[in-house]
UniProtKB/TrEMBL annotation:
Function in brief: Catalyzes the reduction of dTDP-6-deoxy-L-lyxo-4-hexulose to yield dTDP-L-rhamnose.
Reaction catalyzed: dTDP-beta-L-rhamnose + NADP(+) = dTDP-4-dehydro-beta-L-rhamnose + NADPH + H(+)
Cofactor(s) it depends on: Mg(2+)
Pfam families linked: RmlD_sub_bind
Organism name: Shewanella livingstonensis
A biological process term (GO) from this entry: dTDP-rhamnose biosynthetic process
Name under which the protein is recorded: dTDP-4-dehydrorhamnose reductase
Length: 194
């Protein structure tokens, strides 16, 4: 059983929302129901800000004279390969939320992520491949798969955090995480060249 502060805080947050959903109107016995829903997402990224994609691009871009941090054959970038999830580009999440707001009725909980699953290592490999294709990265870049146990992290993450988004697909169509990553990196390349 996976038990972390994240799981506990997620449960408490959900319970708090359902508690405040039904509130008693002041000075009456009438109850008011506030329409709310929860949208869960995972592995958010964008071509700006601090996230896995921008961090990987920075690490992969470092020159070999910065070998203590950068990627070289003798000093690869270690990437966790035993955690599975669904990357989600922020732009597509925003489009989904916009469409969700226009719905007349909601179910209590929606899941939204880009379609498909991968490990962090597979995601990093795709960032490398699409980053090279977009002209953002240059070879050689060395990535090495590692386990969560071997990778020193302050945050404990679940081994499987992919989301079942079938209810959300009635509102918006998901693109694959590979399509979204390509779009994200192409937008970044255009912004750097433009």
């Amino acid at each position: 059983m996976f038990n972390t502060l994240h799981c506990g805080s997620k449960t408490i947050g959900t319970q708090c929302l359902w508690t405040i959903k039904i509130t008693r109107r002041r000075n009456t016995t009438e109850l008011s129901i506030t329409p709310i829903c929860i949208v869960r997402t995972s592995w958010l990224y964008h071509h700006s800000g601090n996230n896995f994609v921008t961090t990987m691009l920075k690490l992969m871009s470092l020159s070999h004279d910065q070998a203590s941090i950068g990627s070289s054959e003798n000093n690869p970038i270690n990437i966790v390969n035993d955690q599975i999830g669904s990357p989600t580009m922020i732009d597509d999440l925003a489009r989904f939320l916009w469409k969700l707001c226009s719905q007349k009725q909601w179910v209590p909980i929606y899941h939204w992520s880009d379609a498909g699953i991968c490990t962090w290592y597979e995601f990093a490999q795709a960032i490398k491949q699409h980053g090279i294709a977009a002209g953002l990265l240059h070879q050689p870049i060395y990535l090495r798969p590692t386990t969560s146990k071997q990778y020193a992290s302050r945050v404990t993450r679940p081994p499987f955090s992919a989301l079942d988004s079938h209810l959300s697909q009635t509102i918006a169509t998901q693109k694959t995480w590979q399509q979204q990553l390509t779009l994200c990196l192409n937008e970044l390349a255009q912004s750097k060249n433009g």
